[in-house]
Design brief:
The protein is mainly alpha-helical. The protein has a domain of 129 residues: MetI-like fold (Orthogonal Bundle), CATH 1.10.3720. The protein contains ten helices and no strands. Helix 6 packs antiparallel against helix 7 and helix 9 packs antiparallel against helix 10. The longest helix has 32 residues.
Length: 229
């Protein structure tokens, strides 16, 4: 008996590789949403009432499992909206959310909470002399943040931001539970058809490893370029 029966897995390899695009798409969209939301949450910290809402949001997101958040977005909220329309307005409405859209929203909201702390730390690391010089030149608060504070903050916190993106790529495997055909979900489909768990898991493990190494290398290169630029 051949323990490593690659003949049964080889026809599925292109199908497994096809999951790379889905995995990276979810991570990229979530990172964009997360950065925008993260900046917004940081700005909200400056307001007394909004700051409390921002803190509560970050606390809830960081204190609950990602899988729970995904389940709420994909299953619970559409159910709640359907019941509100049925019992409140008297007619049925379909609020089913596409699985990929639910993944974008969930990972974006989750990433925003973590990125806000990274961005806030980056802002706190900005030299006060830069801010005082901007005020002395009469630059308003919006342009001060847009042209001076945020660019420096992103530069200072780039390694942490890159680490968060890499973590995000690995965490996308959670979307397999709602049927999104990412790398991990495709592995589950292959193993259900071939019953060859070892080969399929090793293949996607290698794919994940290569992806992470590529982005880690690119991140280090960009960090060096920014440091010398």
């Amino acid at each position: 008996m051949n323990i490593f029966d690659y003949d049964k897995i080889e026809p599925w390899i292109p199908y497994l590789i096809g999951g790379i695009g889905v995995t990276l798409l979810i991570a990229l969209v979530a990172a964009i949403i997360g950065i925008v939301l993260g900046v917004l949450l940081v700005v909200m910290h400056n307001n007394k009432i909004l700051g409390k809402l921002s803190f509560a949001y970050i606390d809830i997101i960081r204190g609950t499992p990602l899988l729970l958040q995904l389940s709420i977005i994909y299953l619970a909220i559409p159910q709640l909206l359907r019941e509100i329309f049925v019992y409140g307005l008297g007619y049925e409405a379909n609020f089913a959310l596409p699985a990929l859209t639910a993944a974008f929203i969930t990972f974006g909201l989750n990433s925003g909470a973590y990125l806000s702390e990274i961005i806030r730390s980056g802002i706190n690391s900005v030299d006060q002399g830069e801010i005082e010089a901007a005020r002395a030149l009469g630059i308003n608060k919006f342009h001060m943040y847009k042209d001076i504070i945020l660019p420096i903050a992103f530069k200072n916190s780039f390694p942490a931001l890159m680490n968060e993106f890499i973590t995000l790529i690995k965490e996308t495997s959670v979307v397999s539970v709602i049927g999104v055909a990412d790398l991990f979900r495709r592995q589950q489909i292959v193993t259900s058809q071939t019953f060859r768990y070892f080969e399929a898991l090793i293949i996607i493990g290698i794919i994940y490893y290569v992806i992470i190494k590529i982005f880690s290398y690119a991140g280090r290169k960009m960090e060096v370029m920014m440091r010398h630029g």
